[in-house]
């Protein structure tokens, strides 16, 4: 099958693309290589994917609608998986604008294009952060998720809402995933696991949020990729 995946130079997109390429699918990978964290790591992920002849990288931003449209039209995908986003909860306090551009405008561009090319399945990465002020754990898909506590969560919830209306209006089969903190090789250097490891190796104290009273579950990358592949 032909897949169009956004965010292939990112952590999750890289793993997903590699798995699909290993299984013999064609993958077009769209990524703007944003400087949110070390771009060298993103380039290395794309270089690893480029070992597969069926991988076609496109370096561009989601907000550049003509570039996005041209890339999707050329790829003629059966399945479109939208993972590119401005991620990270903390950074959304510092630079909310990046979240509005990438996650709201960028995601809307994806939906506009998906309806024209009539993909068989549109899959979107949302986040467990959208449960926000919801205090009941464990979370369920049916729980209320309309009290986001950060702009990151608010933009992801906005994407889900837009997707709901596009799916209804244009009959696009759509799935939005709410990922729970994902970890594994080639992971994101802005996330706790990598920050803790780096500080430990350097003999530095680790920074702990929430006065050390916080606990959470993590998802291993291979388990997440298995779930996405089975649902696609
Ligand atoms: N990793 C997690 O634990 C986690 C948890 C919940 C949700 N998510 C979501 O999963 C998706 C993938 O996350 P990740 O951990 O791989 O993040 P990542 O930052 O490693 O990957 C995102 C990629 O998107 C690209 N990108 C960002 N904005 C762009 C834009 N405007 N145009 C083009 N490319 C752009 C970046 O260059 C990057 O390579 C994101 O949507 C994220 O919000 C991740």
What does this structure look like?
The protein has 232 residues and is α/β, with parallel strands linked by helices. The chain has one domain: NAD(P)-binding Rossmann-like Domain (Rossmann fold, 3-Layer(aba) Sandwich). Helices cover 44% and strands 16% of the residues. The strands form 2 sheets. A 6-stranded parallel sheet has the order 3-2-1-4-5-6, with helices on both faces. 34% of the residues are buried. Bound molecules: nicotinamide-adenine-dinucleotide. Nicotinamide-adenine-dinucleotide binds at residues 7, 9-13, 31-34, 42, 61-63, 83-87, 102, 106, 125, 127, 179, 181-182, 188.
Please count the helical segments: 8
Structural class estimated from helices and strands: alpha/beta
Strand and helix order: EHEHEHEHHEHEEHEH
Q: Based on the structure given, which CATH architecture is correct?
A: 3-Layer(aba) Sandwich
List how many beta strands DSSP finds. Answer: 8
Structural domain tally: 1
Please sum up the structure shown:
The chain has helices at 11-22, 39-49, 65-75, 91-94, 96-117, 151-170, 192-201, 221-231; strands at 2-6, 26-31, 55-59, 79-82, 121-127, 174-179, 182-183, 219-220.
Topology:
Blueprint: E1 2-6, H1 11-22, E2 26-31, H2 39-49, E3 55-59, H3 65-75, E4 79-82, H4 91-94, H5 96-117, E5 121-127, H6 151-170, E6 174-179, E7 182-183, H7 192-201, E8 219-220, H8 221-231
Parallel strand pairs: 1-2, 1-4, 2-3, 4-5, 5-6, 7-8
Helix pairs in contact: 1-2, 1-8, 3-5, 5-6
Bound molecules: nicotinamide-adenine-dinucleotide (NAD).
Structural key phrases:
alpha/beta, 6-stranded parallel beta sheet, two-stranded parallel ribbon, 8 helices, binds nicotinamide-adenine-dinucleotide, Epimerase_deHydtase, 232 residues, Rossmann fold
